[in-house]
Amino acid sequence: MSASDSPEGHARPIPHPGPHRGAEQAPAYVVDTRRKVSFARSTAQPTTTSNPQRPSPSRPSPSRLSRQGPGARAGQVAGGTGPSASNGVGGAAYRPVRPRWPGRARFILRRTVALVLVGALAAGVYLAWVPFNAWRGVERVDNTPTSTPPDTAGRNYLLVGSDSREGLTPAQQAELATGPDDGGGKRTDSIMLVHVSDHGGKPVIVSIPRDSYVPIPGKGSSNKINAAFAFGGARLLTEAVEQATGLHIDGYLEIGFGGFARIVDSLGGVDICVARDMKDELAGIDLKAGCQTLDGKNALGYVRSRHNDPRGDLGRAERQRQFLGAVMKKAANPATVLVPTRYSAFADAVSAGLAVGSQTSLGDAFAIAQALRAVGNGEGLSLQVPIETASLQTKNAGVAVKWHPAQAKALFTSLRNDESLTTPPAGTDP
């Protein structure tokens, strides 16, 4: 029976290199039991192997080294046991030691992660708290009409710019070129219909010319839609818009002269590209063509001016949509949101300058802001009511604007059905 056939295990002679010096240095036979290693001494001289092609056991072949992997140590047996596998004979198999973070490093890492999470939470709370706190100070007005059409698809909001000089001193009125309050009540300088789709369609902003000749509820005849605001404020204006368009109005926002200028100044001015030279003494501006930053005074004049505009009120309405989009684009910029002083100043200016409908929520205000921002980014539609003529001669209201019957009806039908508009409908592209 050969050593490899021994019932006690697989024994192989391990010859020692070099000359033998005695019986005490005779070769040892290692018996691999796969659980423990034993040594047997013999005084017999080692014999030469009969297979010269068999590699020496003391030097594992390349194939064995490759099976053991690069981490195998000299003297380690392929089964995972051997004298070099532990500090003693029969020790456990060698296993690589996993590197561990020192205690201080782990503490620093955990503390850093905790601080980042706390900071993110605090920032989120702050970003939400500022507009919520400002919203509590916003003036409420009653815009609930006496009669209203059934609720329609999507959400429709009325955005109104009034000529209110409330809160402005005579010096401020002169600076902003608003003129003094003549005691004739507030009038609308701009009326916009904001439509927000329920299924992710592009938001739509439609300018309604203030000289639009439409029926005025309770007055028995048609008049300029601007007159509805003068006769009955937000309530009558809302009812007149609903009756003329067939749309149910879900929210109402109104801003005056002074509030508009303060909002622009709170942002550090707003960037706008002026299409042509604009000099209007009534609006208090002298602007050169080109892209520039407008402060509150010049911004107010820019959106009010109409006397030197070849398109009159229609051109003014287009500039108003353009500028409001630029305002919301600037307000959503990280340079505004991430600077606490500017963010708070903007929220305070909005709170002081806005009046909202009694049924209008903070969520409605955000929806309007998002729609205006989309228009500023080119992701929404900026439209006007289709016009048949801007020089309609009337008996009771002078020269007025007449809507195009078919095209205006098609536009408001699409909005009423919440159709996804990707391009301006006929007659709506300024």
In short:
The protein is of the alpha+beta class and 430 residues long. It has eleven helices and 18 strands.
Strands of the biggest beta sheet: in what spatial order? 4-15-10-5-6-7-16
The parts where pLDDT drops under 50 for at least 5 residues are 1-11, 19-24, 35-52, 54-58, 60-90
Query: Which outline best applies?
Result: globular
CATH architecture of the largest domain: 3-Layer(aba) Sandwich
CATH topology tier name of the largest domain: Aminopeptidase
Report the portion of residues in β strands.
Answer: 15-25%
* Sheet of most strands: 7 strands, mixed
Number of helices: 11
How many structural units, i.e. domains?
A: 3
Question: What this model shows, in words?
Answer:
- This protein has 430 residues and is of the alpha+beta class.
- It folds into three domains: 3-44 and 56-85, no CATH class; 100-136; 141-416, LCP protein (Aminopeptidase), CATH 3.40.630.
- It is built from eleven helices and 18 strands.
- It has helices spanning 62-68, 103-135, 170-175, 225-245, 257-266, 296-304, 312-331, 334-337, 340-353, 362-376, 405-416; strands at residues 10-14, 28-32, 37-40, 139-141, 155-162, 188-196, 204-207, 213-215, 222-224, 251-255, 270-274, 278-280, 285-287, 290-294, 354-357, 381-384, 387-393, 399-403.
- The model is unreliable at 1-11, 19-24, 35-52, 54-58 and 60-90 (pLDDT under 50).
Present the secondary structure layout.
Layout (H helix, E strand, L loop, with lengths): L9 E5 L13 E5 L4 E4 L21 H7 L34 H33 L3 E3 L13 E8 L7 H6 L12 E9 L7 E4 L5 E3 L6 E3 H21 L5 E5 L1 H10 L3 E5 L3 E3 L4 E3 L2 E5 L1 H9 L7 H20 L2 H4 L2 H14 E4 L4 H15 L4 E4 L2 E7 L5 E5 L1 H12 L14
Parallel strand pairs: 4-15, 5-10, 7-16
Antiparallel strand pairs: 1-2, 2-3, 5-6, 6-7, 8-9, 10-15, 11-14, 12-13, 17-18
Helix pairs in contact: 2-9, 5-6, 5-9, 6-7, 7-10
